[in-house]
Amino acid sequence: MLDTPSARFAYQADGLTLVTGSPLAVAFPTTTDGVAGLVRACCAIGLPFLARGAGTGLSGGATPIDGCLVIECSRMNRILEIDPVNRTATVQPGLVNAQLSRQVVALGLHYAPDPSSQSACTIGGNIAENSGGPHTLKYGTTSPHVLSIEVVLPDGSICTLGRRDGHSVGYDLRGAFVGSEGTLGIATAATLRLVPLPETVCTLLAPFGDLVSACEAVSAIIAAGIVPAALELLDDRTIDAVEASVYAAGYPRNARAVLLVELDGLPVGVAHERARVEALCSARGALDVRVARDEAERLAFWRGRKGAFGAMGRLAPDLYVHDAVVPRTRLPDVVARINAAAERHGVRLANILHAGDGNLHPNISFDRRDAGELERVRQIGAEILEICIAAGGVLSGEHGIGLEKRDYMGLLFSEADLAPMRWLHDAFDPDDLCNPGKMIPQPRACTESNPRHREYAAVEF
Ligand SMILES: Cc1cc2nc3c(=O)[nH]c(=O)nc-3n(C[C@H](O)[C@H](O)[C@H](O)COP(=O)(O)OP(=O)(O)OC[C@H]3O[C@@H](n4cnc5c(N)ncnc54)[C@H](O)[C@@H]3O)c2cc1C
Predict the structure, then answer these.
(1) Tens digits of per-residue pLDDT, 387-427?
(2) How far does residue 286's CA lie from ligand 1's centre (Å)?
(3) 15 and 57 Cβ atoms separated by less than 8 Å
(4) What is the best residue among 12, 26, 126, 129 to mutate for testing ligand 1's pocket, by most ligand atoms within 8 Å of CB?
């Protein structure tokens, strides 16, 4: 247990540094019983608590409210069982995502969900956020890859949601827990689906003279019935940041956008799709279409994309990685409006898109010590959401709601829509001790009558 000022400082936020809180202490359990004991102790004295993985979340999910207990799961990082016949792995929640694929590659298997933070983020955090990644387009987000979850409920009891064989009946509480942002309990183990490594992988890099043409190529590829494993887009400002950094991948500096297309599957099918993708990109004005000649070049293409957030770390002390989704065909118009808003607000913004999913990440470089700049960043953050919702989009593609977007849920859901979410929450956590104040806005009547809710609702983004 750590309760020093430096520990409280280190755990004051996740990857969203716009909002901070000061925990009472940080605990590092190593077993399910250890987690249950901590939760029961919190319940006994009415102390709020929250689970934390690696703290790479980008919506304030692991940001503590003042005075709560942080239960850090990173020491619960073991693989408990690998079952190659049924293609499953049972792991503890603190296991780092990329470790799992590394451990099963010799069996010809991998764990498909691949957030760009996969070398640091944990399976517990991935489950809580229903994380996606570049390969979500073909393989889906975390949820379909989670068969069952052992959970310490907010009263300290232990249960299993779902079944290891995937044949669950009754309410799909496994599904409800995935993406619940740590508000329904603490995952202490999970059985995950492993998928075979594809026989062939082919990665193409297509630079374009403008972002609109690149977006049109994305829509054309999907319209042609091709489902690439990944379809990623970087704008010119991202290309500049990447190429000036240690993640330089040889992206052409004269391009206004770079499209990364990954195809995988059986060799014959991949070869056929590769020819069609090349033709579709060329027809939409690609300046060039390069195909990775070997694994080294494929990894180099990806190095720029995977390192893009890190590359932006050189531009300013803080980075706000925004996240929203719009219908794919609206991407050019939405990105143009976001760029115009950035110019109007005088903020530095670069775009990375999981374009195949219509998921965009406008990245804002800033210095939070500058109060004026901080305020402009908050304003454009809100404006980006309004632009995306107006275009038929939603609040988040993969980073979750957390504190960042809690108070915008009303843009998407009516009070009647939010009510069942609150009922579900209250069924799991009637005392509101488990990661309180996140994701679901409190109804006005509730915040007025309940001092605790008033306090949580006051935690502002
Ligand atoms: C550079 C960078 C790139 C990123 N790229 C992606 C991406 O491609 N796709 C994507 O989806 N996200 C991405 N993210 C966001 C982040 O990595 C994910 O949300 C990730 O799943 C968080 O995992 P974590 O272990 O860091 O969790 P934390 O940040 O520690 O926690 C996140 C949430 O999970 C809850 N939680 C943690 N452990 C448990 C547990 N055992 N039981 C219950 N709840 C728990 C916390 O309470 C919190 O609400 C990126 C972040 C960074 C910094």
Answers:
(1) 999 999 999 999 999 999 999 999 999 999 999 999 999 99
(2) 35
(3) yes
(4) 129
